[in-house]
Amino acid sequence: MKDKLKIDIVSDVVCPWCTIGYKRLDKAISELGIQDQVEIEWQPFELNPNMPAEGQNVQEHIAEKYGSTLEQQKESQQRMAEAGEELGFTFDYYDEMRMSNTLEAHILLEYAKTFGKQTDLKMRLTTAFFSERKDVSKREVLKEALIDVGLNAEEALAKLDDDDAKYEIKSKEAYWQNLGVKSVPTIVFDRKSAITGAQPVETFKEVLSELVQ
Asked: How high is the pLDDT of residue 1?
């Protein structure tokens, strides 16, 4: 029995290109018919670790962080919406949209891994944030997502007040950053090689074909 190809996806729940990148990777895996030959694990990366609990208006945040004008932001959002649409994902950008703190979402993704539900929860949270105008730092939103993917919400939410669980996420983030991960998505194959960014489906297919040979 050949070992599965381990794919680590370093990403954040509120990162649009991470969603597009994963969807393209998933499409490549499906088109190659190698679903049973790969194993995906999500690794934490907070785009904004110092984001306050109340979040920040997305337009203000992007202007402050990247110096983008409103016009540039609108163009970029349009590109992302089109890329999402091709992959069956809805990016619903609106003027009052707020950037959320994602530490607790990452703690829950770590919890979900034990039950083989990491990808389910990741996509549920990403959909809540980008398609349903929900704040993924709010515990009622997190609880709803856990229930939707069939996880024990009470047990999972208890982790959010556990210092060890927080420390574990911070340690994992530091591990990947020390390896040189500075932007997301970073997709790592068998911890030997990596691709950054939402590459085209064809690029993922080429890389995967070579690696599963």
From this structure: 60
